[in-house]
Every structure is written in C-alpha cells, then in structure tokens.
Design a protein that fits this description.
With 93 residues, this protein is mostly helical. It has three helices and two strands; from the N terminus they run E-E-H-H-H. It has a two-stranded antiparallel ribbon. This is Type IV conjugative transfer system protein TraL.
C-alpha cells in the first residue's frame, strides 16, 4: 500500500480521502457507471484500476499534460478570446 501524501505547501493539489482531486474523477465515473448498469462492485474494482493507470500516466508526464491533451482533442471547451479553436491546426498569415 502506498503512503498517504500529506500536503506540505499551499500549492499542493487538493486531496479528497486518499487521492488528489484529479485522481478521483476516474473512480467516481466508473462507480457511477457501475451503479447505472447495476454492477456496483465491478464498477468499484474498475475505478481502482483506472486510478492506478491514471496515476502512472500522470506521473510520467509534465504538469498540465492531461488538460493540454483534452484541449487538443477538443474536449475542453473555452469561450475565451485568447484561446484559439483546437481544431485549427495551421495558422496562415
């Protein structure tokens, strides 16, 4: 079992129970999906496995990589005027 990470500064991510806020999202999604399809225990198991793989994915990449990947795929919408459309790959003068 991994030790619980205790935040040491104000910039550390928010922790909910044993996971940081971004790690709990795959667990909650799989748990709710398991509830909807009436398979709660397999949903919990799948959620724990998803958290493990997401943690491994996140730790091997720089900070903000997941948000950048979601933006690049067009799954992170923004109405800001300074952020270009993610589907425009080439900018012509």
């Amino acid at each position: 079992m991994e030790p619980v990470a205790i935040p040491h500064s104000i910039d550390d991510p928010i922790h909910i129970l044993l996971w940081s806020a971004d790690e709990i999202v795959p667990f909650i999604v799989s748990m709710l999906t398991g509830m909807l399809i009436d398979q709660f225990i397999p949903g919990l198991a799948l959620g724990l496995i998803a958290v493990k793989f997401y943690r491994r994915f996140r730790d091997n990449r720089p900070d903000g990589y997941t948000l950048h990947a979601l933006y690049w795929l067009g799954l992170l919408p923004s109405r800001a005027q300074t952020i270009p459309n993610p589907y425009i790959r080439r900018f012509l003068p």
